[in-house]
Amino acid sequence: MLFSRFKTQLPTPEEALEGRPERAFAVPDRHTVLGNPLLGPYPDGLEVADFGLGCFWGAERKFWQVEGVWTTLVGYQGGHTPNPTYEEVCSGHTGHTEAVRVVYDPAVVPYTSLLKLFWESHDPTQGFRQGNDVGTQYRSAIYTHSPAQQQAAEASRTTYRTALHTTGHGDITTEILPADTRPFYPAEGYHQQYLDKNPAGYCGIGGTGVKLSTPSETNWGRSCPTGIVPAPNED
């Protein structure tokens, strides 16, 4: 089953595993680095962003290092099977991608800055893979929590697509979809903050080398709606 066609082809709802009404495992209470609760409800004023950019071990570390991020957790999103396990997701029979939920203070770090980190931290042109990691669970995705997030994410994709084409890369395969109909299911405890617990563990995250300039208030909502503009590739 692990090497079936579903490794590189999403299952239909009818083909997906049945799942279960509740999680089959416990999730730790607090973040091992930031010290804050993993599961909501979260304090007033914070917002939630969901990203899929390959193996979630390295992806989560990228985001917990950002000032203004209150907590992060990894899980499964964008599929059909309720409350899946890691083994089920890896089989390709649930339709989920490995995702990172980022809970952040928008007064400290705007959503556009998280989008910048997302695009630069992986290769969004690879379809159902990231580097040597092959499978539908490694696909690139953004799941949005408001119309404003959806608009910003789509605009950033357009901008980054131009930057990638200019440097000879292929087209972006990232899916950008509302999160309200794509539940986030937290992953098993050993996956949470994995690279804090295992500093020498596998990361698997690497970008294209194509950079975006740092968002600034001077260009938000003007020439570049997301506050993101292409920057030259760095050696």
Report on the structure:
With 235 residues, this protein is α+β, with helices and mostly antiparallel strands. It has a single domain, classed as 2-Layer Sandwich (Peptide Methionine Sulfoxide Reductase, Chain A), CATH 3.30.1060. The chain contains five helices and eight strands. The strands form two sheets. It has a six-stranded mixed sheet, with helices on one face. Strands 4-5 form a two-stranded antiparallel sheet. The radius of gyration is 17 Å and the shape is globular. It starts with 46 loop residues before the first strand and ends in a 38-residue tail after the last helix. About 5% of the residues have low confidence. It comes from Streptomyces auratus AGR0001. This is Peptide methionine sulfoxide reductase MsrA. Belongs to the MsrA Met sulfoxide reductase family. One of its GO terms (molecular function) is peptide-methionine (S)-S-oxide reductase activity. Has an important function as a repair enzyme for proteins that have been inactivated by oxidation. Catalyzes the reversible oxidation-reduction of methionine sulfoxide in proteins to methionine.
Which CATH top level class fits? Alpha Beta
Helix amount? 10-25%
Query: Which outline best applies?
Result: globular
The CATH homologous superfamily name equals Peptide methionine sulphoxide reductase MsrA
Beta strand count: 8
Please count the helical segments: 5
- The number of distinct structural domains comes to 1
- Radius of gyration over C-alpha positions, nearest whole angstrom: 17 Å
The biggest beta sheet is recorded as: 6 strands, mixed
Extract low-pLDDT stretches: 217-227
Structural class: alpha+beta
| Strand order in the largest sheet | 7-6-1-3-2-8
CATH architecture: 2-Layer Sandwich
The CATH topology label is: Peptide Methionine Sulfoxide Reductase, Chain A
Helix and strand sequence:
EHEHEHEEEHEEH
Overall pLDDT level: 91
Q: Termini, distance in Å?
A: 42 Å
Question: What percentage of the residues does DSSP assign to strands (E)?
Answer: 15-25%
Enzyme class: oxidoreductase
InterPro entries: Met_Sox_Rdtase_MsrA_dom, Met_Sox_Rdtase_MsrA_sf, MsrA_MetSO_reductase
Family: Belongs to the MsrA Met sulfoxide reductase family.
Region (Disordered): 1-20
